[in-house]
Specification:
This protein is an alpha/beta fold. The chain has two domains: about 55 residues, His-Me finger endonuclease fold; about 130 residues, Tandem AAA-ATPase domain (Rossmann fold), CATH 3.40.50. Helix content is about 35%, strand content about 20%. The chain contains six helices and eight strands. The radius of gyration is 19 Å and the shape is elongated.
């Protein structure tokens, strides 16, 4: 990752254009780490030491992906439906941005205190990793891939349907050192063209139909 950032810079500080070298340049967070900016190429810039140290831990840019028009239009209605009935189903074409949309729903509900964490169920292990990478890069939401318990600083988990059993449901409901009241649960339904978004209490996760 460090090499990628340096090669993109062409050997010059991306803030002041001073010459830098690969061994001593600073990989600066454009959206500060303390504000949720992740360690991904899209959120890093090759800076000289002076630029990085004088800027400190403030946001220089918001590198999250801006929502598409349909996502903006649908967000309020979907969130309101979940508030009323605890569940909403979203249908969109493959590649339309359903993964990012699910993250936007979670971010909106978390900001208002309606949910505390995000749980995603995907049909295949390859999709688990794709979800992890996509929401981290695009929206700076970090989900623990393949595990029932997130670590400090992570926003939830993404696992397969097959991993859901009596033992793992118990873990979801009784996670140590976690005071989450509600989760935003995302499931693929029948095909990759539909998502089911739910608000659930810890311990009330059920197997998909």
């Amino acid at each position: 990752m460090r090499e990628q950032v340096f090669l993109r810079s062409g050997g010059r500080c991306e803030r002041c254009s001073q010459e830098i070298d690969i061994d001593t340049f600073h990989a600066a967070h454009l959206r500060a780490h303390r504000n949720g900016g992740p360690l991904v190429v899209e959120n890093l810039a090759a800076w000289c030491a002076r630029c990085n140290l004088t800027t400190g831990g403030v946001d220089v840019a918001d590198t999250r992906v801006f929502p598409r028009q349909w996502q903006w239009r649908a967000l309020e209605g979907v969130v309101e439906r979940i508030r009323r009935s605890q569940v909403a189903t979203v249908a969109a074409a493959p590649g339309a941005g359903k993964t990012v949309f699910a993250s936007l729903v979670f971010e909106d509900m978390r900001a208002s205190g309606f949910v505390d964490r995000m749980v995603v169920f995907a049909p295949r292990r390859t999709l688990v990793q794709q979800w992890h990478e996509s929401v981290l890069r695009c929206r700076h939401v970090e989900l623990h891939p393949g595990g029932e318990v997130e670590r400090r600083g992570q926003d939830g988990v993404v696992v397969t349907y097959q991993s859901l059993n009596v033992q793992t449901v118990g873990v979801h409901g009784n996670r140590p050192n976690c005071n989450a009241r509600y989760s935003c649960l995302t499931r693929f339904i029948k095909s990759a063209s539909r998502l089911r978004l739910e608000r659930v209490r810890p311990g009330r996760v059920t197997s998909p139909n």
